[in-house]
Amino acid sequence: MTYGYRARTAWIDDLLDDAGGGYDLCDHHADGLGVPVGWTRTDRRSPAGPSFTAVAV
Prior knowledge:
By secondary structure, the protein is mostly beta strands. It is 9% helix and 25% strand.
């Protein structure tokens, strides 16, 4: 998971060997990740996992 304060977005990506400044989340925790009101949660994991974009209200 990575996030951008300016964009008010959290991105969930596939696990990598090196998170490169992001945070690794297992599928269970990635699926349950909530974002602050006004933020967008974008799931960019490969098609094997869930793929959707949700906006917190």
